[in-house]
């Protein structure tokens, strides 16, 4: 049910939304694939500046750290200005970063230009792209997320040969220059991110909307604390000033999320998971070479992984959208993390090239499943409106473990001289994370269902609204358990009905 | 340059066999033109350069007649070595009556041939340049067997690309063997001129940190620096060269695609915004 009257952000679930998915595909693709793609230039740059490999590897680390660490900045900007301007700014920053990198004369300058500036630009690309999917989709959101996240492996497969071609023809400096221009396509993707309140394009309306939504979120928060007397807050007019500095800060970055049970569960589970998430990819090729496989076949393993990943993400999105899985999507997510961990635990048993190919296939599958649902589950837990802040807070927390994962793995390999301990560590961490998420989400679903019952019992609505509610409740009953993500939709419609009724 | 690129083993005596391969091996001191690629996956080399006890190495060729009349093999040696070369007939010929097998160095016949059931071998001690050469095993005038070469110097197949005013680094590595000395040459027309870094300190810097690797850093590049460079490594038993190509580009070269892509991006963004304004106007009217 779509209500066109008034500036309401009701997800269209289609139409222009698919164009937005395409834009997000490109944006997310660059954000994830670019740091890995420029590794091709490292050997040459290392020789040019006469540095060691680890000094060069810092470029990627700084880039990754900035992309994840600048998440909250992204969230604040999106909360204030919406997705489109932020992504365009991000694209410009990336372009400027790479173009200036082409003229660098020291490794330190490379750290700043490639690592910091481009990383910041990519951060301003990643978060808003994910956020705008949440604005445009609700019923088909898992599919949209799966498709958009598929951008990462596709871009990686495209960037790798492209970078090699550029390098062979223009050297590393020329390549950086041209890559700067290519990154400007993020601006094109950003141009596609039409703000959702179509017809009322003024930014002022948008911020008023968002102010209203924040009020609603603050009140929703209070509801979760089981204080029903706060429900009347929903009917406050939008011009009323938000009182207190806490609420003002929350308008930019919703710190009240830390009281949100689902958010905390997600945060702890994911932070744990990322400790073992990326290390196997980093070490797959070296491990293959270690057991005697030649360089090209080892590189081919990564290609297999990327191809399976590419296919797995949209398919996972479709599965996650089906009516059996959607209400229990958190379980599906926990299962895929544990599956991923199981793959790593079994990897040391793989002998020879065939075994590793099988491992790559399963790893690609598991990796794709987890990535496709990474942001979908967060949206499911906190709702589309608070997702903006949630994603920023989550990424900055994940930043630490993402950066720690591969070095810890490397340390294990160096200490024991054997790769299997690294695989065991990654597998164990992920199985642990998956199990934790599974149990905690069971508890969370249980609590949410309890609160839901309490709230519908305590609601005192005039009859027409109640029948409307019942109608919508019937639709909601298709999903066994209501995630809080469906709350904003219902509440907005309630409020609009109240306004329409002149209350 | 194509050399057998051995993998290290821990035995001091290693036996290597290879099937019928038709790569051309030439024994020369100065291999200046690269030959065809050799597949070297089934070779091992022991790198045990102990002068008092020269390395002992065996090479065996199996003649199966599959690739025609001659098999040639390149063997890379970096220093003094005892080598045994043997020629063996494939099993399918074992019942054939062999009339005559001869081993020759160049055109000279070698007298002491060890014969076992189906194989004929000679033993050589290669301790100096003279001993390097082409050794032939002829079975009924059919099979040839050549030995020797020089350690591989790795240059680069693709050109190093750099820009005017920038600096470039050319790197040559020697696998397996450590050269005694490195020399760099620049091609001027058809001549090769040695690069003396003490003469032109602000232009060329040769780095000798690692004996197996040599770096030539060329500063303040100009168009004239474009061309082929050679790095030559001197070994006990000879010299070996590697070729590198340096390409100097101006900034205009990558600038053109850059501007083309930027123009494309601007056009796309304009189209998107114009389309959006247009569809909004349509909606307002509707």
Automatic annotation (TrEMBL), chain A:
Stretches that traverse the bilayer: 15-35, 56-77, 89-122, 143-162, 174-193, 263-284, 296-319, 331-351, 357-375, 387-409, 421-445
Recorded superkingdom: Eukaryota
The keyword Signal is assigned to this record: no
Region annotation (Disordered) ranges: 454-503
Pfam families linked to this entry: MFS_1 (PF07690)
A GO MF label: monocarboxylic acid transmembrane transporter activity
Reaction(s) catalysed by this chain's protein: 3-methyl-2-oxobutanoate(out) + H(+)(out) = 3-methyl-2-oxobutanoate(in) + H(+)(in); 4-methyl-2-oxopentanoate(out) + H(+)(out) = 4-methyl-2-oxopentanoate(in) + H(+)(in)
Keyword Signal applies: no
Major facilitator superfamily (MFS) profile domain sequence ranges: 17-445
Residues of the signal peptide: none
GO CC entries: basolateral plasma membrane
Membrane topology: Multi-pass membrane protein
Subcellular location: Basolateral cell membrane
Keywords: Cell membrane, Membrane, Symport, Transmembrane, Transmembrane helix, Transport
Family, as annotated: Belongs to the major facilitator superfamily. Monocarboxylate porter (TC 2.A.1.13) family.
Entry-linked PANTHER family: MAJOR FACILITATOR SUPERFAMILY (MFS) PROFILE DOMAIN-CONTAINING PROTEIN, MONOCARBOXYLATE TRANSPORTER
NCBIfam families the UniProt entry points to: 2A0113
Protein name in UniProt: MOT2 protein
Name of encoding gene: Slc16a7_2
UniProtKB/TrEMBL annotation, chain B:
Residue stretches spanning the membrane: 258-278
InterPro entries the record matches: CD47_Vset (IPR013270), Ig-like_dom (IPR007110), Ig-like_dom_sf (IPR036179), Ig-like_fold (IPR013783), Ig_sub (IPR003599)
Coiled coil start-end: none
Protein name: EMB protein
GO terms for biological process, alphabetical: axon guidance; dendrite self-avoidance; homophilic cell adhesion via plasma membrane adhesion molecules
PROSITE patterns recorded: IG_LIKE
Key words of the record: Immunoglobulin domain, Membrane, Transmembrane, Transmembrane helix
Gene: Emb
Domain of life of the native organism: Eukaryota
A Gene Ontology molecular function term of the record: cell-cell adhesion mediator activity
Domain Ig-like positions: 54-148, 151-247
CDD domains: Ig (cd00096)
Pfam families named in the record: Ig_3 (PF13927), V-set_CD47 (PF08204)
An annotated GO cellular component: plasma membrane
Lipid metabolism listed as a keyword: no
